[in-house]
Amino acid sequence: MENTRITPEAVSDIAVAFGTESGDNVTATSRAPTDFRYYEFVMAAFVAILLLSNIIGAAKLSTVAGFTFGAGILFFPVSYVIGDVLTEVYGYARARRVIWTGFAALIFMAFMSYVVVAMPPATSWDGQAAYEQVFGSTWRIVLASIIAFWAGEFVNSFILAKMKVWTKGKALWSRTIGSTVFGQGVDSLIFYPIAFLGIWETQDVLTVIVTNWLLKVLWEAALTPATYIVVGRLKQAEGVDLFDTDTDFSPFAGK
What we know:
By secondary structure, the protein is mainly alpha-helical. Helices cover 64% and strands 5% of the residues. The chain is built from eight helices and four strands; from the N terminus they run αβαββααααααβ. The strands form two sheets. It has a two-stranded parallel ribbon with strand order 1-4. The chain has a two-stranded antiparallel ribbon with strand order 2-3. β2 and β3 form a beta hairpin. The longest helix has 43 residues.
């Protein structure tokens, strides 16, 4: 698919105002091109990691080196890194579309899991109990995952987009880590109480909220060099550096 470049008429004074004049074939603008070269691939990676981390690791509680945390912490933060890349490279509006896509995918995954687990097993198959243990999440975990993802991702994307304007596109590390502090904080504060309060000991819930939040932020910080590389290469490939100066930040906006 051929990328539709920003025309000179479509470029505002963003580049001059933010000191990011066009260079190395990257144009600073608040208007996205009609098509991107790699947007769909980034979306697919985001949704795949989101679904897999929720299926495999969400309900397992682990303790390593004295720290108690949800096992999904190992991979789920990667979806936030990709979420940062989406907002930084493609803007809040495109990130919003991906968040809603992930939201719909989570709902379908929950529905499919419920239907498949509920189907009567063949008499010759003895894996029903194990299957239910892995895929038979309670309604609380499903609800918590969907709500926490939706709220956390929108907070993450909003903070990053706003900080990009405030920092005039400088100090990428500050907005990727800063947005994670708030986005992952909202995610953990919603997910664990809804999913496990009353099932786990209250102290365990509080401990996991704090440790998971800290680990997610540390993960984001550790992955900052990789984020810089991916963001830089994608901006070069797409030819634009988007600033959300005139974006409708409502999660329910059509564009």
